[in-house]
Specification:
307 residues; alpha/beta; Rossmann fold; eight-stranded mixed beta sheet; 12 helices
């Protein structure tokens, strides 16, 4: 055979190995959040420790040590309600409960209580594997069980950012105790998020990398599992109060996914869309309107329902 044939074959093999290698590396980066990395960040920037961030916003929550049904130990922060309604706050991907500090302070000002766990493989909680809800839904259940036992006469809502928003939608669809859910910048599915995220963070095209990342992830999590897909779970939320917030300039998740979620919801689902906002920016760029809307949403859904 000619030299050009072997050269061409070598180039094809090298390209295939490159694509496989990049996909494997990205699947590992996607699914794992080493504790060593998290603790090194806190040592370098102690002001970003969750309790410091809550204190910076004038909130002094109790520290909780929760344990999930599968034995994972979680760190969480808790302030009881003075009005009879408590909100579970869920942070985003590779963030921690401190991300929710300003939102927690806003809720406390209006009498709401909150519980804000560090999800497994995040913050000071155990674990290093991220499964986008396959196991994290047990973390949310541990928080919900705690407040249900501590405040049995209260009503409960849930509010999450990004991955936490997606988890909020999926969990609320599976727990009748949750009466209201607000999701800021949620993805419609993990696959949707991967398509957008790989373009934004790596500059790589979704194909062939997204299918390969999914393949390399299968030993740990099925990223297409409908239980962790907000879009698949939306029909089960019909009858509950749902608020979806999305910015049109979001480069992390596909903004069009919010419209899909809205259409899949029931009559009690609302969409707050701001064309100029980026990812998880409502409480940062529109703090006054965000506060008004959150207080109105949770008061109507949780406090007025008690009357």
């Amino acid at each position: 055979m000619s030299t050009s044939f072997w050269v061409g074959t070598a180039i094809i093999v090298a390209a295939a190995l490159f694509v496989l290698g990049v996909s494997f590396k990205n699947s590992r980066q996607l699914l794992f959040n080493p504790e060593e990395t998290r603790q090194a960040r806190y040592q370098a920037e102690p002001e970003k420790l969750p309790h410091q961030r809550f204190n910076q916003h004038g909130v002094a929550p109790s520290t909780l040590n929760l344990q999930t049904e599968d034995g994972v130990k979680l760190k969480a922060w808790y302030v009881p309600s003075t009005a009879g309604a408590t909100i579970i706050l869920l942070h985003g991907y590779k963030m921690d409960s401190g991300e929710m500090a300003s939102i927690a302070a806003m809720l406390v000002r209006h009498g709401f209580g909150f519980i804000a766990p560090d999800l497994r493989a995040h913050g000071d909680s155990e674990g290093e594997l991220i499964t986008f809800g396959q196991h994290e839904l047990l973390d949310v259940k541990a928080a919900a069980d705690y407040i249900a036992n501590r405040e049995p006469d209260n009503t409960f809502g849930i509010l999450g950012n990004s991955m936490g928003g997606a988890l909020s939608l999926c969990y609320a669809a599976q727990d009748d105790r949750i009466q209201a859910v607000a999701a800021q910048s949620p993805y419609a599915s993990v696959r949707h998020s991967l398509k957008q995220g790989i373009k934004h963070f790596t500059g790589l095209p979704p194909f062939p990398f997204v299918p390969l990342i999914r393949m390399f992830s299968l030993p740990y999590v099925d990223l297409d599992n409908p239980r962790i897909s907000p879009l698949a779970m939306m029909p089960a939320l019909k009858g509950k109060s749902v608020l979806i917030m999305m910015g049109g300039a979001d480069m992390v998740v596909e903004p069009q996914g919010a419209e899909q979620l809205f259409r899949a919801g029931g009559e009690t689902t609302r969409l707050w869309f701001e064309p100029e906002l980026t990812h998880v920016a409502f409480h940062i760029d529109m703090p006054e309107q965000f506060e008004r809307n959150m207080v109105e949403f949770f008061s109507t859904s949780l406090l007025h329902s008690k009357d």
